[in-house]
Specification:
Blueprint: E1 3-7, E2 10-12, E3 18-25, E4 34-39, E5 46-51, E6 58-60, E7 68-73, E8 78-83, E9 92-99, H1 105-108, E10 115-118, E11 122-126
Parallel strand pairs: 2-11
Antiparallel strand pairs: 1-3, 3-8, 4-5, 4-9, 5-6, 7-8, 9-10, 9-11
Length: 128
């Protein structure tokens, strides 16, 4: 059974950086894409990034493009989300998730309905 376990998060000042980790068990990143989502106060959960299985094609929402970087270490079966130049508006709970295998990630990556396995969430607070 696929399990997704997150680590990272915390409190950071505006302009600071954090890195989130997403460790996958019961599956390999050669087969499973991984998406990153967040729920900020007052808004629905939104897809912010994804990385494809195998060749690691990356996707970003406009709200994080240029500031966040998704990467993966296949040997560790772990995906990372490096978040730089954080803003107070980035405050929220961040999730990683694995979608149904062989999904057309380019078309569906921001939509949570296509994801089956979710991490427990990590709180990110950006405040001075």
């Amino acid at each position: 059974q696929v399990q997704v376990v997150q680590s990272g998060g915390g409190l950071v000042q505006p302009g600071g950086s954090l890195r989130l980790s997403c460790a996958v068990s019961g599956a390999t990143l050669n087969r499973y894409d991984i998406g990153w989502f967040r729920r900020v106060p007052g808004k629905e959960r939104e897809g912010i990034s994804a990385i494809s299985a195998g060749d690691g094609v990356k996707y970003y929402a406009d709200s994080v493009k240029g500031r966040f970087t998704v990467s993966k270490d296949n040997a560790k079966n772990t995906v990372y989300l490096q978040m730089n130049n954080l803003e107070p508006e980035d405050t929220g709970v961040y999730y990683c998730a694995a979608p149904t295998p062989d999904m057309d990630l380019s078309a569906f990556w921001p939509f949570e309905i296509y994801y089956d396995y979710w991490g427990q969430g990590a709180q990110v607070t950006v405040s001075s």
